[in-house]
C-alpha cells in the first residue's frame, strides 16, 4: 500500500516541519551518525500507535518533543502525519486518501486523527492491522530488531507470522470479546 508522504513537526530532532515524499519503489535515507535517520522510523512507528516510550529511546512519551538546542527553543508539541494513497482500498477506510496524525503536547495530552477526525489509538491500530504494516510488524525493522527476532521465543515469532498471514486481527477481536 503506497505511503506517499510523511510530515514530521517538532518530533525529536525535527524542530521544523519537514515533509518527506516517497516515490514508488525503494526509498533510501542516508546521513551521518546522529543525523536523525532512526528518528524517522520512530516517527512512523509513533503515529501508528507505539505506546512504549522506551522503545522510542525515551523514558516518558513527552521525550519525543523537540527538546531545544543552542539556537532554538524547545517545541511545545510534536506532530507526525502519514499520508497514504488508498485508491485500491488496501486500508480498511472509505476514502481515496488517508491521513493519520498523532499529536502530543507538553502537558502530556495526546491525540490521534484519521482524516482530521479525532479517533482512539485503538482505531489507528485497527486501520493498520492486517495491512502488513502495523507499528510492530516486520515492515519496519529497527536497528537491533533482526537479532531480537532471531532470539525471540517461539510464541512471539508465531504472532509475527500470524500478522503477516492476516489472522491477527481476528485473534485480537476474539480476545476482546472474551474479556467483555
Ligand atoms: P546512527 O547512524 O548513529 O544510527 P541516526 O541517523 O539514526 O544515527 P538518530 O538516532 O535518529 O540518528 O538521531 C539522534 C539525534 O536525535 C541525536 O542528536 C539526539 O540528540 C536527537 N534527538 C533525540 N531526541 C530528541 C529530542 N527530543 N529533541 C531534540 N533532539 C533529539
Ligand atoms: Mg540510527
Automatic annotation (TrEMBL):
It comes from the Bacteria. It is found in: Cytoplasm. ATP binds at residues 32-39. Contains large globular domains required for ATP hydrolysis at each terminus and a third globular domain forming a flexible hinge near the middle of the molecule. These domains are separated by coiled-coil structures. Required for chromosome condensation and partitioning. Belongs to the SMC family. Homodimer. This is Chromosome partition protein Smc. It comes from Lactobacillus helsingborgensis. The lineage of its organism: Bacteria, Bacillati, Bacillota, Bacilli, Lactobacillales. The chain holds residues 1 to 180 of 1187 of the full protein.
Amino acid at each position: 500500500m503506497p505511503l506517499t508522504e510523511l510530515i514530521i513537526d517538532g518530533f525529536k530532532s525535527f524542530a521544523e516541519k519537514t515533509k518527506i515524499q516517497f516515490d514508488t519503489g525503494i526509498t533510501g535515507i542516508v546521513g551521518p551518525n546522529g543525523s536523525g535517520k532512526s528518528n524517522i522510523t520512530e516517527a512512523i512507528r509513533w503515529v501508528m500507535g507505539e505506546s512504549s516510550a522506551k522503545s522510542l529511546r525515551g523514558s516518558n512519551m513527552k521525550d519525543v518533543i523537540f527538546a531545544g538546542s543552542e539556537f532554538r527553543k524547545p517545541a511545545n508539541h510534536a506532530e507526525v502525519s502519514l499520508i497514504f494513497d488508498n485508491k485500491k482500498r488496501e486500508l480498511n477506510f472509505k476514502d481515496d486518501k488517508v491521513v493519520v496524525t498523532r499529536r502530543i503536547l507538553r502537558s502530556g495530552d495526546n491525540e490521534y486523527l484519521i482524516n482530521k477526525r479525532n479517533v482512539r489509538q485503538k482505531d489507528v491500530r485497527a486501520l493498520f492491522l492486517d495491512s502488513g504494516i502495523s507499528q510492530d510488524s516486520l515492515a519496519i525493522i529497527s536497528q537491533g530488531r533482526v537479532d531480537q527476532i532471531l532470539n525471540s521465543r517461539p510464541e512471539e515469532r508465531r504472532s509475527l507470522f500470524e500478522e503477516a498471514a492476516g489472522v491477527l486481527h481476528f485473534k485480537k477481536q476474539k480476545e476482546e470479546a472474551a474479556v467483555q
